[in-house]
């Protein structure tokens, strides 16, 4: 007996949210921690941006347009106008969530990354998007890599030796605030994945793939600072996992509030908002952060195109598979 769309939506949302745990799991392997370099993160963020941008413009926005057109409340031209308005509404909503994150912790802001001059400079470590690691983290990774290359005994199970307690506290706080920021963003993403699956499981699966891909580096960015600050792998892993749980909560709450009100018009609104939110995450966070890791653009643009190709191939498989 197959799953209903609602059951499948919950499964897909859980898988997408749990992807933060996959990224966080690197702290259980000292070798994987040492591989968390700037080029790697730039490529991962670029890849996830390409996936999300492609599915937002090619699939989700089209679903929004179809929803408005099928609602009988709008003609074709009006449906396009309403879908466009919903898309920009989603972008505005995500900007509001970014403002909320900044209000909760004024030392963090994703908006500075929109200034291209910051990409070429050495940015202040206390002003970072929610998926960015500061130079102190990369310095610790380099120290561990050098120690491993020289054959020095690894202190994988001991708290790393920091310059002082303040540095440890700052790293731990950075990881926890990153978890909070990601949790806030994951809430509407969970609702989006669930609603998309209710309407069309193929679209829901595509959206879950896109969200899961970008959740992996986000989980890494939660866990590594906490692990470096405390030496506690499980604490770092739990915080990253917790940030992904909000995706499941978003799905369940959305289902509880909207289950008796789903119609074509609501689908049009939700899909338009989702497309806008996904695009804004890419433009305001993922791509600027990737460029800060890779200011010479050696991998970012290539990885964005690769992400688009991956999602295009996935959608083709859904059509012809």
Write the H/E string, N to C. Answer: HHHHHHHHHHH
Distance between the termini: 21 Å
Instruction: Name the beta content range.
Output: under 5%
Radius of gyration: 20 Å
Q: Please count the beta strands (DSSP E, at least 2 residues each).
A: 0
Number of helices: 11
Indicate the low-confidence ranges by residue numbers: 109-128
Give the overall shape: elongated
The helix/strand class is mainly alpha
Overall mean pLDDT stands at 80
| Biggest sheet statistics | none
Percent in helix: over 70%
Give a structural overview.
With 321 residues, the chain is an all-alpha fold. It has 11 helices and no strands. It has helices at 5-24, 30-34, 38-70, 76-104, 117-120, 135-149, 165-199, 201-230, 233-258, 264-293, 300-320. The two termini are 21 Å apart. The relative contact order is 0.24.
State the main characteristics.
321 residues; mainly alpha; 11 helices
List the helices and strands and how they pair.
Layout: H1 5-24, H2 30-34, H3 38-70, H4 76-104, H5 117-120, H6 135-149, H7 165-199, H8 201-230, H9 233-258, H10 264-293, H11 300-320
Helix pairs in contact: 1-7, 1-8, 1-9, 3-4, 3-8, 3-10, 3-11, 4-7, 4-10, 7-8, 7-9, 7-10, 8-9, 8-11
In short:
By secondary structure, the protein is mainly α. It is 77% helix and 0% strand. The two termini are 21 Å apart.
